[in-house]
Amino acid sequence: MVWVKICGITSMEDALAAVELGADALGFVFAPSPRRIRPEKAREIIRRLPSLIETVGVVVDAPLSWMRELRAFCGLDTLQLHGQEPPEVAAALDGHIIKAVHMGSPRPISPQAYPEATLLLDTYDPRHAGGTGRIFDWDLAKALARHRAVILAGGLSPENVEHAVGLVRPFGVDVSSGVEAEARRKDHAKMASFIRRAKGWISPTR
Fold first, then answer.
1. Domains in the chain and their CATH numbers?
2. What pLDDT, in 10s, does the model give residues 101-130?
3. Most exposed of 6, 42, 145, 167 (fewest Cβ within 10 Å)?
4. Which residues lie across from 25 on neighbouring strands?
5. Is 14 a known active-site residue?
6. Is 161:131 a contact under the CB 8 Å cutoff?
7. 74, 122, 137, 139: which one is catalytic?
């Protein structure tokens, strides 16, 4: 069954709703973004989550020492490197690491890139590290997914996630703006629909 991460969590209400609706992981953004959250607030939310929910801290080109301190302070299970971090940085961090790579960039991604990390495939944009809400050519993701487990991101929504999962066959999917009512606030009906469709839980009456 496809692993589902709801990213850009900023409130306890949205976090608990995502858990109740069947999300496998929650993402907290600690880099410049409309969805940025203070470490103190993230820690407060994480302390109230069930232990089986994976918590992911999204960082961009941050110092190693700061990332280690952040993970310990917040109680994060995983760090998601969403900048230009080299393989050496991913290898230097203990524990589970997700490395975002930008599909459609001038530099193609090798299937052997970042062997210590799980690759998250996001849309290339020279101006933004992520969170563009735009899809890329999923055939590029399909080619990578034949060689290793990947997480598909970039412009996913309740309307397209079922098709994306069927085409790419990723290990997991990651969504943020596609399930929002507005920046920093999730639409719980959209989250429910996204998770059902990603996991193949579509009711035959719909």
1. 3-199 (3.20.20.70)
2. 999 877 888 999 999 999 999 997 766 555
3. 167
4. 5, 54
5. no
6. no
7. 122
